[in-house]
Amino acid sequence: MVKIETHYIIDYENVGAKGLKGCNDLEKRDHIDIVFTSNASNLDMRAIADHGKAKLNFMEVPPGKQSADAHINTFIGYYVCRKCNVVVVSKDHGYDNVIEFWKKKTGLKIKRKEQIKGGAKDSNKVAIKAELTPDKKATSTAKQQVPAKK
Q1: What are the φ/ψ torsions at residue 109 (nearest 5 degrees)?
Q2: Is the pLDDT confidence value at 139 over 70?
Q3: SS (H, E, C) the chain
Q4: What is the pLDDT of residues 67-123, one digit of tens each?
Q5: Where are the domains of the chain?
Q6: Percent of the chain with pLDDT strictly greater than 90
Q7: With respect to CATH, is domain 6-124 assigned 3.10.290.30?
Q8: What is the separation of C-alpha 110 from the centre of its chain, rounded to a whole number of angstroms?
């Protein structure tokens, strides 16, 4: 049985070193992709040093408004095309529509969390409805779901 690779795409400017919590438990088939711009605060090398057996990649992207977010969305699509599981590590709900879209299209495990492993639960709370318009073009609408109060 072939094990599918998992890419943990870290929105470093959003979660910082806290997003790497649990990375020391990762396996050989796992990858940690740290996405940052020149605007990022210093990388915490202590948090990164013990990253388990995972392969570690640093991806510096050009600075700009929402630049890291746009690049992370393209990385999601790239890894989905390679048939990899994807975990976006970020507190930013802006990824949820893209994640839900690809999860439904592919059946791959794609989610957003605030940390690699540990106390953070899956953060996706989006429902997407796809429809055909009269001119046969596919459109989709997304609606943010709000968790019920406890």
Answers
A1: -85, 110
A2: no
A3: CCCCCEEEEEEHHHHHHHHHCCHHHCCCCEEEEEEECCCCCCCCHHHHHCCCCCEEEEEECCCCCCHHHHHHHHHHHHHHHCCCEEEEECCCHHHHHHHHHHHHHHCCCEEEECCCCCCCCCCCCEEEEEEECCCCCEEEEEEECCCCCC
A4: 999 999 999 999 999 999 999 999 999 999 999 999 999 989 999 999 998 533 444
A5: 6-124
A6: 54
A7: no
A8: 7
Residue type, 64: G
Q: Is the pLDDT of residue 33 over 90?
A: yes
Q: Say which residues have a Cβ less than 8 Å from residue 19's Cβ, sequence separation at least 6.
A: 10, 11, 12, 89, 90, 114, 115, 116
